[in-house]
Amino acid sequence: MQKIIQLMSEELEKAFENAGYDPRFARVVASNRPDLCEFQCNGAMAAKKTYKKAPIEIAKDVAVQLEGSDVFSKAEAVMPGFLNLDLQESWLAEYLTKMSEDPELAVQKVENPRTVIVDYGGPNVAKPLHVGHLRAAIIGECLKRMGRRLGDTVIGDVHLGDWGLQIGLIITELHERQPDLVYFDENYTGDYPEEAPFTIGDLEEIYPAASARSKEDEEYRNRALQATAELQQGRRGYHALWEQIMKLSVADLKENYRKLDVTFDLWKGESDVQKYIPDMVKKMQDDGFAYEDQGAWIVDVAEEGDAKQIPPCMLLKSDGASLYTTTDIATLLEREQIYHPDEVLYVVDKRQELHFVQVFRCARKTGIVRDETELNFLGFGTMNGKDGKPFKTREGGVMRLEELIGDINKEMYKKIVENRSVRDKDAEETAAIVGLSAIKYGDLSNQATKDYIFDVERFTSFEGNTGPYLLYTIVRIRSILERYEEAGGNAETCVLLPAEGKSEKDLMLQTARYNEALSGAYADKAPHRLCAYIYELANDVNTFYHEHRILAEEDTARQQSWIALMTLVRRVMLDAIDVLGFSAPERM
To answer: If you average pLDDT over every residue of the chain, what do you get?
Structure first.
């Protein structure tokens, strides 16, 4: 189905054309003065120059053509040349009826489906997920779901940090603690043990200890660098240790992402593209793009007109080691060869913008990606505590993600038990569902590029612009529909009638905007716009609910119309929260 705004514009285009004006001026937008009208057209203002005519006269000419329109109940020309428009209640009801009959809820698929790779993980192995990983996971997952809902082929890649110094540090520290392990015997030729000589808990203690020591002990750090180099050069024992680290870490990461209802199609990392690097660098050297500077190999990526200095992109350090830039460019090479994407989107902390400017420019300049492949960077802001500083534990350390989820779930459990609407045995499961909405909506409702305050008390509230408020609204609608059915009604046979009052029409208008809201949010890579839509929809539902006693309504046809509307609204809200990445419980 077409967007409701498109159908209105088509009606207006005919009116402009019949009045003797170019239909390209017939653009309908939501009114910025809802107290005066529901929609407006400012095309007469733009047409003034073309037709050398007062805008108000153009608007009046068009308004005459809309008299008796099946679409508009009001088309009023007002100074200095605006067209104020209201929809026909009957036409709106017909649109919503078609929307309710459509399994896709009138969501218009993209005309030319694309293949999009979303890179939105980026955790380092052997380290627990912490709150710094939250935004990439939540925003990236939402964008992936948006794209798929609208018809694109979207591939999510976790892109693990699994080949850098942190592995060398773990190997070095493990060597200090357990020097007799066969992994460190260069003469060992047998099979290595199937069981790792450490647990995930051990790794999460070993890495920070090794990292801290390396900052104070230069000799220790040099050994870790050497271990990293030997791993990357194929030392057999180190590679076996790396495999053990990966096995444990990936299992742990998958479990933590599962709790966030975040999934990836690809569990690839830096290690997967090492095979491409030698030939890739050699080609850049042979083609004259890469040149040696103090032993390192670099590519100039500065461009004329740059507002600030863009340093060269370093491919290899003077010791021959690769860097994040190298592996990121090699990853683009692999993605081009395997998936031929139309777009690669990185959802990463905005402080890494310069890095991606260098990577994108180098990849384009050297022909790693096709000219038509879009390379985009969505840099997100930081999640801060009430003090405005990056979110920490009470002790001042970086908070683990599972700890944050646990705290939110405890708060939700307490509120749900106090509400006494859920049986004790179901309260814990419900708390986890509602808690996830608090976390995800609390993040997504903020513009991705901006920093925001993560306020546990506010985000877990059942009132205001929160995930729990949305879920409470959905649960309320479910309760109405269940009670209607229990009283002998059949929601499936209910027919939607034209609205009779303002709150009813407002709810119908907002429901009809879902197609527009979803496609607009995806086009702009702006999940907060979809959040704003569904929050306004929830507000309209609750305003309507408080003004109408749905189950006590004596006019059967009117009651059935309201039930039909509630059924459609619930479907839209459930679809929208699924795109945002969470679900609704049966009770709250």
So the answer is: 95
